[in-house]
Amino acid sequence: MNDIEMAKIRRESGETKRRGGLSVFRLKVIGAVFMALSVAGMTLVPALFGTPSADNMTALTVAVVCEIVSWCAVPIYSWLVYNGWKHTRNRMQYAGRLFVVAMLAGPSYDRIMTGRWFDAHTHNPVWGLFFAYVVLVAIDWIARHYAGFVRWLMTVALIVAGVLWNVMLQIGVSQRVMYTGVLALAFVLVFYFLGGHENTMMFTAGLLGAVMCITPGVGVAFLHYRRDELGYRQAWAKWVFYALYPAMLLAGALAV
């Protein structure tokens, strides 16, 4: 078997290490920019243009555009969760970090969305990533301990439970049309089940994103240019990204 054939096999199996492209650090920066647009659409836009409504089409248009564009972040963060699961040394600690971020973001998110610092009827999108991670860990555990019909029955039951958690808890519901928690779970499952087939994985994820209001498909395009490197210049930089979303929401909540 020659080098060209070997390279083709590695490429099809997703084993090729990309030397150029977007590192994990750069993907997080891009995701943070889209995330900031969502917060700005809910807080900064009303402050600058007035309350978005049918009587104020300028504010309404800017707010909706900010929110729709921010959905590009969903596949990016879903990939980061999947990639974190694949490479972390301690999966319980990784789940704990997601849980803490979701808890910290909760009060500010509720304040922005409902005007109250606590509202059980809505939950921030980080909970969607947390539940997706829990489902991912559970599915992988089942795959290693069961086989055949029992494995797939338990897997389907877990996926259905994950969808129901997101729907009933109203996780990351945006504009009443986008369930970002459900979509994050769907992306994570695509990455998990098709992770060994790069082209099929990217095509499926892109199709899923395009069906879900187009912009998540644009987010998948960024993932196509990723490379398998962290890209951090400082070890503490990763902790900044954990604090970034709660900090953005807190600033927005105090401004409204």
Number of extended strands: 2
| Gap between N and C termini | 64 Å
Uncertain runs are 1-7, 12-17
Radius of gyration: 19 Å
Helix content: over 70%
Count of domain modules: 1
Characterize the largest beta sheet: strand count, sense, and whether it forms a barrel.
Answer: 2 strands, antiparallel
Shape: globular
Organism: Bifidobacterium ramosum
Keywords: Membrane, Transmembrane, Transmembrane helix
Protein name: ABC transporter permease
Transmembrane segments: 27-49, 61-82, 126-143, 149-169, 176-195, 201-223, 235-255
Q: What can you see in these coordinates?
A:
- The protein has 256 residues and is mostly helical.
- It has one domain (18-255).
- It contains 12 helices and 2 strands, in the order H-H-H-H-H-H-H-H-E-E-H-H-H-H.
- Helix 5 crosses helix 7.
- The chain is globular.
Brief characterization of the structure:
The protein has helices spanning 3-12, 24-42, 44-49, 57-70, 73-87, 91-114, 126-145, 148-168, 180-193, 198-211, 215-224, 237-255, and strands at residues 173-174, 178-179. By secondary structure, it is mainly alpha-helical.
Helix and strand arrangement:
Blueprint: H1 3-12, H2 24-42, H3 44-49, H4 57-70, H5 73-87, H6 91-114, H7 126-145, H8 148-168, E1 173-174, E2 178-179, H9 180-193, H10 198-211, H11 215-224, H12 237-255
Antiparallel strand pairs: 1-2
